[in-house]
Specification:
By secondary structure, the chain is α+β, with helices and mostly antiparallel strands. It is built from 6 helices and 6 strands; from the N terminus they run E-E-H-H-H-H-E-H-E-E-H-E.
Length: 157
């Protein structure tokens, strides 16, 4: 049986099991206190503080965020749009997408689709309009859209 004790990140930082658990907890709750994080991962508060400082300094943790009820209420219609692109226009299309108010994130991917776009809108009518705008972009050859009906965040262990 092979177990991975540490992973080497793209920036060259070694993350051991404690670092990985700390990051997982922060992904679940970016506003958790040091004391809560320490309890959840079974480490001392001093250890959590030191590791947070090291991970921030190394650039592994770039920031913390909060998703409020208002964030979801401001854009109650959310979806994922999978996009197929012709030729080498991905960068140009990604730049255009990033400038659209309803686009909250653009991901490049592999497989059948070239891009996955996270969308949010006030209504289905608004979402339909932005979908039409995206489909009309030069180089977009195909798309598929899925509405997000509910979202469940991973819970702390």
């Amino acid at each position: 049986m092979v177990s991975m004790m540490t992973i080497l990140t793209a920036s060259g930082t070694n993350l051991d099991k404690t670092d990985q658990r700390l990051i997982a907890e922060l992904r679940r709750d970016g506003r958790a206190s040091v004391m809560t994080l320490a309890d959840r991962i079974g480490a001392s508060r001093a250890t959590v503080r030191a590791r947070l400082a090291r991970l921030q300094q190394a650039g592994e943790i770039l920031g913390f965020s909060v998703i409020t009820r208002g964030d979801m209420a401001d854009a109650p219609v959310r979806g994922l749009m999978l996009i197929g692109i012709e030729g080498r226009g991905a960068e140009r299309i990604m730049a255009r997408l990033s400038g659209m108010v309803q686009v909250t994130a653009v991901h490049s991917t592999n497989g059948r689709w070239d891009l996955i776009v996270e969308l949010s809108a006030q209504s289905l009518v608004e979402l339909d309009k932005v979908l039409s705008q995206i489909r009309a972009l030069d180089g977009v050859t195909s798309s598929e859209t899925n509405l997000l009906l509910s979202t469940r965040r991973a819970k702390s262990r």
